[in-house]
Amino acid sequence: MTARMVPHSRVDEFVARLMEAAEVIAPRRVEGGDVFYGPISSPAEVAWDYGTAVEPLKRLLVPQRETVLRFSVNEGIHVAAEMDERERVFLGVRCCDVTGVTVFDALYGGDIPDPYYMSRRQRSILIALTCQQPPNDTCFCVCCEAGPFLTKGYDQQWTSLPDGMLVEIGSDRGLTLARAHDDLLLPAEPDHLAARYRLAREAETKFSDFRSYIAAAMRKLTMNEVLPEVWEQAADRCLECGGCTFLCPTCSCFTVTDRWEGPQGLRERHWDACLFRCYAREASGHNPRAELGDRMHARFFHKISHQWAQRNGRQACVGCGRCVMTCLGWAHTPAVTEGIRRGVIP
Amino acid sequence: MAEIATVCPFCGCGCGLYVHTRDGHAIGVSPSRSHSISQGRLCLKGWHAHELTDNPRRLTQPLLRRNGQLVEVSWEEAIAAASRGLGEIAQCSGPRAIGVLGSARCTNEDNYVLVRFTRGTLRTPNLDCSLNIQCLPELSPQHRGIGLAASSGQIADLDQSDFILVVGDDPTEEHPAIAARLYRARLRGAHIVTASLRRHTLARLADVHLALRPGQEARVIGSLLHVLLVEEGMAREAAAELAALRASVADLSPEDTQAETGVPAETLRRVAQLYLSSQQVAILYSTGLALSPVSAPAVQALTSLAALSPPAVGARVVLLSLLSRNNLQGCRDMGVAPEFLPGYGQLNDDAAVQRLAQAWQCELARERGLRAWEMLGRVEGMYVMGDDVIRSLPDMARTRAALEGLKFLVVQDIFLSPAASLAHVVLPAAAFAERDGTSTSLERRVQLIRRAVSPPGQAREDWRIIADLSGAMGQPFPYRNARQIFEEIADLLPIYAGVFYASLEVHGGIRWPTLEAREAQPGSLSSGVTDAAEALTRAAARDTKMKASEQYPLLLTADPTLRPWDGEVTVCQALTLWEEFTVVDRDYPGGMLCLHPEDARRGGLRGGRDARVASTKGERQMRVRVSDEVPEGIAILPYAQAAGSGLMEVSAHPDTGRPVLMPTPVSVAPVQ
Questions:
Q1: Which of A24, A30, A34, A66 is best to mutate for the B interface (most B CBs within 10 A)?
Q2: A260-263: long-range pairs with CB below 8 Å, 24+
Q3: Which of B615, B617, B627 is nearest to B667 (CA)?
Q4: ipTM of the assembly?
Q5: What is d(CA B567, CA A34) in angstroms, rounded to the nearest whole number?
Q6: CB–CB of B39 and A65 under 8 A?
Q7: pLDDT digits (tens, 9 = 90+) for B238-295
Q8: Residue B615, CA distances (Å) to A95, A223, B547, B671, B672 in order
């Protein structure tokens, strides 16, 4: 699909138009100093020049705590689902986070689609923002095929060029949106696309030595060749905070609780984490993964084994580096990947 | 949707976090990257802090006991009942028949207003926080030793330290934000030395682990001082105080210590060498030491170690007392203690008393009052604000019985805590994220806690409840909001001088004393060293050896660093978090008795099986966990389980008089 260009001077105008039709979610700096994806109230709020957001888009698609339905038992049982039906545009999303959503699509939209997720997802447009510099020194998307520029997974992908914002179209939805604003989004020149490919190549060379040999780890995990002591070491370093799973753009586990208030009640869904001791604990008290090392093994098998990559369409690590920042111990993906490869976690 | 920057309500680290709100509900939490403590990280508890709000188990309406049942009443009725009940006791038996407990879970403002209410309105000096048992106020070794009633350094100092000594702490369980820094320090090559009962995860990763058996802390640290002062001749030319300290450790040679404790002499010398070759030293201790039978001399020995300094030019030593709760520091700063006034003012300091009396426009109860455990059985009425007194003190059955025996008990809390379920009046309070205020972390960082959502039902801020009650008792308080109270605190408390509200609005707050107040804080290391010398001499003269016998071959020991949050009221009522913090109780009904594999083998005991544990005080069934973290000959229980077991001796600490769970000889037999 052909690419378009918006002059820098008119980007805000385009954002304002998006805001008229939908809730626009964009990176913005909140009081306290950090950047989160969240609804903006004016185009000026968008933090175009940000590193990475503290969190991926997960919270906006699957909240940490959400009421999914209400029920009552007055004269029969009544159940009403609470669906989120807002139209939303996700703007300025980092490529790793866009890729995370594609993994979510495979997980939540698979054999048994999750209606709550799908309701939000079908009403959202994903606009990626490319990274011309690695935003953080913990970034390793280059090891995971999830950035700094994308070739798929987005509805639109924006790249800031000297002449303006290059808008690449990645889906019918992205195209429809572009066509609706033909007066602003003018056709891009071949030079613009050439500049974009040059910038992408340059960006890849700017990443630090911090890397994660996912492919090597994938082979060992898949073939069950990982030394058992690696999981013991991983367990020594994990403090079971759950941070890596909560911040991971591809971790999707949740738990469900029912809450009665008299004859009525509500069902809530909360984030859960496979590293928690009670995650797999059964009602009998039996715990198939009572040892933290076994839970670490299960987590990384789901993240980067070939079996799971085949199921999700890709490995479930996008190299956003959030686990590196949030790990209390030193059991984040690059460290454990290194441990899997070499037999020792640093 | 909005993200409100605030502070984690759980341990004493003071991590920054954001509460996510939508349509007036707190729907999640995320860590703050820009905050200097959290740096993008949170622990399991912090990640679930929002679950304290919008929680069906919260107290939402005042409760009054009628015919033995707690029934919902209006605020007017509840305040009138509380005022009448407390007034009657004061009238019949005098104000000293009332005891008040403040809270390490509440804000500085709540605690400050409580102190004013207690000393001013009720006129009783019996004011404490049950968690003060984890601090050492009577000796105030740090107060006198460093010139601050708190840690001497800050958490960020760990990032520069090349020698870190961790005594009686398991930071992975107690202070995850500090553990994170220790893991990173290890990666950059800093030397980490742990000294604790259990060989926990950090101990396994440390350069040196000193395996301390119960009651040996002072001896081993004293011996380390011996190596430094006698063998290495450190600080030879220094003042007379150090000569006294040197004399007090003269007999604690590593060889004798090895014979006594089993800690190898060479290991102690290696630790001394690592210390001597370092540029920046950090010494950390926590509840594992503070609740030990020899806490006072051991903490004083550590203070002395901090008063020395390695020979390298510009070498620094910081001492961090790792407080277990979010605002334990602030609670003490505000004067929630029977022996000092807000800001650690002395009770006999007329000027300090006068200043408060003038500001509060009333006379103050200025004598020394009862401590939390001294109140039990001695007062007739109690007022408990967010304090887990039953869980904190070492003998749960005794505490519960004392509360049951009270003529009148008022509890204000966010959940129906064990104490609240015994109360005559229960007042629902606002929780984290439902109120404005400040808290002070273990490194003296004063930070803003911001209101993100409304309290549930009729719950109110703690300070507002107390102000209402004080008004009903004839002493109205002029406070309109938390900011006004804080400004009064900053104005009246010399240690908070210069802590301006504007400086708190910056995420991360500001540490006291500010430059302005530092000048008013004379710090004298020498007095601390003198104290330590005396304490070590006294400790050496005492026979603190606790021996197992043939009939009771194992020494049952309470470990406050093992599963320290299990059973705590806030985490156990959180919507999903409760599961992780009650699982040990469910997996190990009766208690999680941790045994060394060799002891288990000898006793015919297996992990996951029940055992009968007997001491001279009684017998109980518990479930065994076999772990090589546990030293041979010792059986370990988490502190709260030990306090509830009724099997352990509780005796008064010889230096401080406070009740201590003593290691108790037990027999353990399998249940057939």
A1: A34
A2: A261/B56, A263/A72, A263/A73, A263/A74
A3: B615
A4: 0.97
A5: 34
A6: no
A7: 667 778 888 889 999 999 999 999 999 999 999 999 999 999 999 999 999 989 888 8
A8: 63, 53, 13, 16, 19
**Structure confidence by residue, pLDDT tens digits, B231-243:** 998 876 666 777 8
Q: Which residues of B touch A236 (CB under 8 A)?
A: 201, 204-205
Q: Look at residue B522 in the predicted model and tell me its pLDDT.
A: 42
Instruction: Please answer yes or no on whether B33 and A54 come within 8 Å at the CB atom.
Output: yes
Using the Cβ of B188 and the Cβ atoms of chain A, whether some distance falls under 8 Å is answered with: no
pLDDT given at position A107: 93
Query: What are the residue ranges of helices labelled H in chain A?
Result: 8-21, 58-61, 95-108, 115-122, 172-180, 190-205, 214-222, 228-237, 243-247, 292-304, 306-312, 322-326, 333-342
Q: Which residues of chain B neighbour A271 with C-beta distances below 8 Å?
A: 28
Entry pTM: 0.96
**Nearest-by-Cβ selection for A246 from B32, B47, B183:** B47
Residue of A nearest to B174 (CA): A239
| A chain contacts of residue B56, beta-carbon cutoff 8 Å | 259, 261
Residue numbers in A near B457 (CB within 8 A): none
Amino acid identity at B56: P
> Which residues in A lie closer than 8 A to residue B51 (C-beta atoms)?
65
Instruction: Judge contact between B257 and B135, C-beta under 8 A.
Output: no
| Alpha-carbon distances, residue B600 vs B549, B628, B637 (angstroms) | 17, 11, 15
Whether B70 contacts B426, CB under 8 Å = yes
Nearest CA in chain B to A335: B187
**In the prediction, which pLDDT does B417 show?**
96
What contacts 24+ positions apart, CB below 8 Å, involve B474-482? B474/B121, B475/B117, B475/B120, B475/B121, B475/B362, B477/B113, B477/B116, B477/B117, B479/B113, B481/B436, B482/B107, B482/B109, B482/B435, B482/B436, B482/B437, B482/B438
Query: Do the chains contact at B583 and A277, CB–CB below 8 Å?
Result: yes
pLDDT in tens, A123-139: 999 999 999 999 999 99
Contact A246 B204 (CB under 8 A): no
- CB of A114 less than 8 A from some CB of B: no
